[in-house]
Amino acid sequence: MKRIKLLTIIVLVLVVSAFTVKGVISKTDKGYKVGDMATDFKLMNIDEKTVSMSDFEDAKGFIIVFTCNTCPYAVMYEDRIEALNRKYASKGYPVIAIMPNSITKKPGDNLDAMKMRAKEKGFTFPYLIDKDQSIYPQYGATKTPHTYILEKTDKGNVVRYIGAIDNNYKDESKVTKKYAEDAIDALLKGEPVPKAKTKAIGCSIKA
User: Fold this and answer.
1) Which has the closest alpha carbon to 109: 69, 57, 53, 153?
2) pTM of the predicted structure, to 2 decimals
């Protein structure tokens, strides 16, 4: 009997260890999932004023994109992020871009560099810095770019889509699936998002 109990304990320890050695349990629990309520933030914009989602009183939702200056993937998506804002801000879904990287590890992503990049590209959306790196972990963002579509409801901002902007980071002309646009178009029609989660492709966020 004692031997059976001992074997049971050993098996349980091995099972738990298998999931915790590489942090599998903690990783799966990190960040928002589709359907979760996203809390607001208050981050510095490139004009050195703070921006929150609550500032957008007439918004129906938000396109939150974690992006930066230094990642080649993020650079390839800059024009597409700008196009999303130009297409959907007037319809109630503005882009809010957030730079999540440690500027110690990536000096090219500091606030002055962000200001310069925004001016060069003519960004029409807020470009915020997650200076203390407290916001991107809440979302569970791991890449630049990593996109979250939120719908504003009476209860708060609900996460409706997480993942990539589209299915071809290399060549916009070869995109066959516009995941972010499809999600927003569905929400504007009051319909379910056709594909609520995809794999974000990009550089890992530098903590």
Assistant:
1) 69
2) 0.85
